[in-house]
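I am still getting used to backbone structure tokens and would like to learn alongside you. To get us started, please write out a protein record for me. Once you have written the record down, we can walk along the chain together.
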Amino acid sequence: MPSAIPAAGQPSAHSRFVVPVLAFCGMVVAVMQTLVVPLLPHVPELTGASPGAAGWLVTVTLLTGAVFTPVLGRVGDMYGKRRVLLASLGVLTLGSALSAVSSDIGVLITGRALQGAALAVIPLGISIIRDELPAERILPSIALMSSTLGIGAAIGLPVAAVVMENFDWHTMFWASAALGLLDLLLVLWIVPESPVRSPGRFDLPGTLGLTGFLIGLLLAITQGSDWGWTSGRTLCLLGASVAVGLLWGRFELRTRSPMVDLRVSARPAVLLTNVAALLIGFAFYANSLVTGQMVQEPTSTGYGLGASIVVSGLCLLPGGLAMVALSPVSARISAAYGPRTALALAAVVMAAGYVIRFFTSHSLWMIVAGATVVSSGTAIAYSALPALVIRAVPVGETAAANGLNTLMRSVGQACCSAVVAAVLAHMTFLAGGRSAPTLHAYLLIFLIAAGAALAALVATLFLPSDRPGPGARGGRGGRRGTVAVPTSATAARESA
């Protein structure tokens, strides 16, 4: 049973700034995930590293983010979410500073690994919001917090491209360090320590098992296209990750205080939400991966627009702005009709966006329109997913459960990266004296991403229907779809 530590005194005068501060932290962390993408083609000449080593600047953030997000979520549930949030932001700042002071590829990869570990900020922020805010503010606030993952990614690309064009590339990391330090100060000043705790001992064997499973799986997925999907390294990693995963699962089912409560995770309401998160993550990432590359393809391909890095990055900016605007809309949909309905709508919108992209791939403005539609669906989905999670898990497991859900989005993105790389590498032709992906390669990616969105729709339709729980506050007259969201006050009553 989770325990609640009573808050002393009245709410702070700064309490109204808690959500903006947490959302800003989430956006900074999300920007870090895509910051180096425009830099990658230039890393070999800037650092003397091989292209393969340069690719690790993205891969390592995926690995550390995947490992640390559920682990730090669990640690936050047990020992204090604000405390772990501050540690995560400190790691982000340290990683940014390391990358800013060096051009050595090893140091850069280390810095990027530390930046990736800070992805846990988003589920920690969602959990703090659940604990601290009155019930009527929880859904719109977690909608904004969750959407920062997509908003930051959309903003990070054009900002990084502008820096690359006009400043020394280390400036990106100095700015990251400054933003991380600002986040730390704001959290220290504004955000209170969450009162809810989940007692128990830290599951070190479970943590090590989960780490081994994730590293093996994600390395095989992200490196499979380079190593070969049937190569010994890839098959050995996949086999080892499956074996470790089975042993880890058996251990977790038998331990008293598991890192991941597999019995809770196996509930249809949680399991299907995580499956949908994986598929939504796949569909979202395809939009980010191919838009910039497609518009930068030379005009000699017959479909490319020969756009600059800055223009290609700006193509995603309207989608980022749409995500900001739509996160409160998604919260209203979830409040009125339930997050299941919101997630189903999001999957349909994302699939429709890819249909638009399939038929309008020769016009810059229509490419931007299609990408924005996909981002709009992503905003609704990313807002609905944590609402589905928090209504299905105990209050004391909120951060860990949302960490697992964020992990599933990351796994979906890793799978998408592997699929996109394989399709673009195998469907090529000679254009202007160089090898380039065919238009059909991009169109196939759009179809695959649309299929992932529709598969997410199917998973969503099998979720338990939205019903008000005991004590649900119906808002506008107790509307049928209203979702009950337990708060720390509820936890205190339950634990009494």
Remarks:
- DSSP finds 19 helices and four strands in the chain.
- Residues 1-13, 468-483, 487-496 have pLDDT under 50 and may be disordered.
